[in-house]
Design a protein that fits this description.
By secondary structure, the chain is of the alpha+beta class. It is built from nine helices and ten strands. A six-stranded mixed β-sheet has the order 5-4-1-7-8-6. It has a two-stranded antiparallel sheet with strand order 2-3. Helix 1 crosses helix 2. The protein is globular and about 55 Å long. The C terminus is likely disordered. Bound molecules: zinc ion. Zinc ion binds next to strand 5.
Length: 241
């Protein structure tokens, strides 16, 4: 277990890579973390896939984005000619990047940047997947605050966009798979999980630390129809279908 301030590193691999946890083939330019004897992990499994990439170049922006981000990671790529890892940029939280941009950029540049980023994101996400996934979240977690199903779907569907076919996506709509996506969202948005990772906690320790909070929210969000309800006339408890 490590509690140092050492930064999390993400490597852009230069050969065919497979995630050691989910088993997914990641191709030859995959973004991965190296988790000791557990080997390469994709960013989804490493719980870093909600972060945005800020390419190196703008020193002030990078410094501020890192400062505002509870969790960040350095992105490195092996240079064959120079025989060393070279820094490509930083992965940071979306809100940290936005705040840094607001501090560093003029209004016009800011608008232009946001417009471009939004366009890229829309291209990456497959609308059909997104709508279906959001609807499924709403169905299973009726108590989730308005709009959150969309956020959860966007995060979950980025993972699937361009990489899986219909049948694989159908699996992503399994109750258990959707629950995992909602759980991942809650970890990042409602708990200290990211802070713990940044402090050097192992993923499993960090997950254990926030488990109770997550369980409480999940229970609150869960569709009332999936909880036992008391039926009017007979007074029997039963599970509605
Ligand atoms: Zn994985």
């Amino acid at each position: 277990m490590q509690r140092g301030k050492e930064e999390i590193k993400v490597f852009i691999s230069s050969r065919e890579t497979r995630c050691n946890e989910c088993g997914e083939e990641l191709g030859s330019k995959a973004w991965i973390t190296l988790a000791g004897d557990r080997g390469a992990l994709c960013l989804s499994c490493a719980d870093l896939d909600h972060l945005l990439f800020l390419p190196s170049g703008n020193v002030a922006l990078t410094r501020r984005a890192r400062k505002h981000s509870r969790l960040s990671a350095i992105v490195l790529k092996w240079s064959r000619s120079r025989k060393r890892y070279e820094r490509q940029g930083l992965l940071v939280e979306a809100q940290a990047l936005e705040k840094a941009e607001e501090e560093c950029l003029g209004d016009e540049d800011l608008r232009e940047l946001r417009r471009k980023r939004e366009a890229t994101r829309r291209e990456e996400l497959d609308r059909r997947y997104l709508d279906q996934f959001a609807a499924r979240v709403r169905e299973l977690f009726a108590g989730c605050p308005a709009g959150r199903e969309r956020e959860i779907a966007e995060h979950a569907c980025l993972k699937y966009s361009g990489r899986v076919g219909r049948s694989a996506f159908a699996k992503a709509l399994d109750e258990q798979a959707v629950r995992l996506a909602v759980t991942a969202h809650l970890r990042h948005s409602e708990t200290r999980y990211d802070e713990l990772l940044a402090k050097g906690y192992d993923r499993w320790e960090a997950r254990a630390a926030v488990e109770e909070t997550i369980a409480r929210i999940l229970q609150k969000w869960e569709a009332p129809s999936r909880r036992p309800v008391k039926t009017g006339r007979t007074g029997n408890w039963k599970r509605e279908t």
